[in-house]
Amino acid sequence: MDKSKIRNFSIIAHIDHGKSTLADRILELTKTVTKREMQEQLLDSMDIERERGITIKLNSVQLEYKAKDGQEYVFHLIDTPGHVDFSYEVSRSLAACEGAILVVDATQGVEAQTLANVYLAIDNNLEIIPVINKIDLASADVERVKEQIENIIGLDCSDAPLISAKTGLNIEDVLEAIVSKIPAPDDANDQAPLRALIFDSYYDKYLGVVMSIRVREGVIKVGDKLRLMASGAEYEVTEVGVKTPKIVKTGSLEAGEVGWIAASIKTIKDINVGDTITNAANPALEPLDGYKKMKPMVYCGIYPVDTNKYQDFKEALEKIELSDSSLVYEPETSQALGFGFRCGFLGLLHMEVIQERLEREYNLNLIATAPSVIYKVFLTNGEDIVIDNPAKLPDPQKILRIEEPFVNVKITTPEEYIGDLMNLCQTKMGVYKDLEYIDNQRRVLVYDMPLAEIIFDFFNKLKSISRGYASFEYELIGYKESKLVKMDILLNGDMVDAFSMIVNTKFAYNRGSQLTKKLKELIPRQNFEVPIQAAIGNKIVARETIKAYRKDVIWKLHAADISRKKKLFEKQKEGKKRMKEIGSVEVPQEAFIAVLKLD
Ligand code: GTP
């Protein structure tokens, strides 16, 4: 293959600026998929992605383009997600490319995640092509956005394509820019020992583990014996191909190409995304640079509602881990919820998406507890321990001090919301650091604050205060001491470990009373009275009571009203699905995460 005709690139953008829509137009224009096959946002293949309109997993596709110079080019387009929780996926896809298209919404301009993604692209030495999207909208302000990109990022925008991914306007300019600006991998050496980077993988019932790879050097073909450099495992290659986006078998992949391979691998543990594949017969000496391993920021317990499903749940986690190596988990037991796993995530959205994927793709019914960060606890006996589950915090008399993770938060916002956003940060224990200027309308507000406070509904509040216009990103800066206590919740006199949380003493009473009130709303009436108490140590700090049913609701219905009765039963059954029996009280899933929705 003529390597000077290959272009490997990603599309990067802030969330909702139009990456997936642009990818769709590119597929259409290059006739990779016919109009009839074209489903909106073809690359977003997971159901959850379509419903939420966000991109979660990266996806790669090979396409052909006949450029204005009359030559045929082969593009590998690797789609990336835009949400802050998924920057891990972004850096993975960028490591497989030579260039990136930076999509900026002409009505919004440069936002937090635009910058974060640009930095990732720069780290990977990529050629970045700025593209200004949504110029069909009346509120588009192309000149202002060009100026922002030049001032803040330092990219020349004089010939940046001005497009509408929605209407298809000027998409060809993007394709031509890819040809003329992104370097070809033409120095890639087919003769060198094989080195291929695994940037994604998933499990297929028939093929076993399927790996998405970027071949840096050498050639890989069916029948070769491959070696995974990190695990040392060896397998014979059974299938090699590309996605167009249909699976196409090519038999081999050369240096510079992006595609997939399968090798009847059933041992999921052997495959690590970020690892290098080499040829066992002629191995490379050094692996390629892997990825920076991402550390989970947020932990929660996840339990099957039906305790008999524990084994299925465990297998599902193993399979999901294959396509999402940022997920970590280990077995855990809860008095209230039984056997489950403590799982670590990059952020809240990541947590929700994994729970949803587990339920849908593996047909499981799960309960997740309120998320927690990792605390460092220094004990009076000289030991220090880390706590990812509030229920495990030792007695206060054994604790010298507790440290919690702090993050540096950068909020990008139109000027008019600054006052209200500063108030929000202050109530979240934020420490003001800086106010930076982007242009005459936008500012970046910088605060240090406890990560735990970001988990507690920071995102929704930020969005509602700024009517959706502010965006934020955060970065871990380290651990600091805080005055923290464990608050337990007692239901009908019994402590429910899954409800325990670690709170700042400053809010403890307030959160206790809000949480008991919220639980009272969420837990349905039972046929006996249920007290809900919040306690710090032995001290009850708040109490609410769920009154008993006066009568069974059914008896209130007229005997002839059968269909209504049936409906009521169905509704009750539906409601039961996500209920967990704790002691003698039935508790719905929402109750376990109620703490996230407190005012
Ligand atoms: P994530 O995958 O969630 O990161 O978002 P994305 O950047 O892929 O954005 P997506 O392509 O899903 O587009 C977001 C929204 O903007 C969708 O409702 C699109 O229909 C809309 N949109 C995208 N491009 C254009 C455009 O050129 N003009 C207009 N008017 N709307 C657009």
From TrEMBL:
It catalyses: GTP + H2O = GDP + phosphate + H(+). SMART domains: EFG_C. It is a peripheral membrane protein. Keywords: Cell membrane, Elongation factor, GTP-binding, Hydrolase, Membrane, Nucleotide-binding, Protein biosynthesis. It comes from the Bacteria. It is found in: Cell membrane. Residues 4-186 form the Tr-type G domain. Gene3D superfamilies: 3.30.70.240, Elongation factor 4, C-terminal domain, Elongation Factor G (Translational Gtpase), domain 3, P-loop containing nucleotide triphosphate hydrolases, Translation factors. Required for accurate and efficient protein synthesis under certain stress conditions. May act as a fidelity factor of the translation reaction, by catalyzing a one-codon backward translocation of tRNAs on improperly translocated ribosomes. Back-translocation proceeds from a post-translocation (POST) complex to a pre-translocation (PRE) complex, thus giving elongation factor G a second chance to translocate the tRNAs correctly. Binds to ribosomes in a GTP-dependent manner. This is Elongation factor 4. It comes from Mesoplasma syrphidae. The gene is lepA.
